[in-house]
Amino acid sequence: MVITAKLCFFFLQKINSYGKIWEIKRLRIALIWFIRWVFGGTSQGLKVIPCVGETLEQRESGSTLDVVAAQTKAIADKVSNWDNIVLAYEPVWAIGTGKVATPAQTQEVHLELRKWIHNNVGAEVAASIRIIYGGSVNGGNSKELATQPDVDGFLVGGASLKPEFIDIIKSATVKNSS
Ligand SMILES: O=C[C@H](O)COP(=O)(O)O
How far away, in angstroms, is 157 Cα from ligand 1 center? Predict the structure, then answer.
């Protein structure tokens, strides 16, 4: 079973904006417990796709790499078995908006994530972990994104419900032929 924790992070980001409301605080605590439960499950074989990504404001202020590093650290602190983790980079501004990160932006972040894992988790995990991209991937942009050396796959939302999904799947041939 694969569980994505991205919704949790999304809601936590939203909740952070309104954190003074008592009920929201209770929900926040519940979500934190849920995240702990999810990552605790990785030690028992549960597969998890945690997602990291910056808001548009963070990208424009130049803090993208710091933001995703901090998010990855929060994840790494909870992970006991990296074999059960696929890490996804999903810029918040690209999710469901039709605005996709450029191949260069994607590669920059994925490379940085792999370096972070190398330096903080280990060389073996850095070499083997799959780092996938999500955020307005479609049949027209997947092939070029797939050419990036540190892009190991995609987390596809809207386009997975359309015929073009087959083109996204076919972009894997870019990897296989390189
Ligand atoms: O679950 C998928 C991701 O949130 C990306 O969604 P999207 O491809 O519709 O932007």
Answer: 3
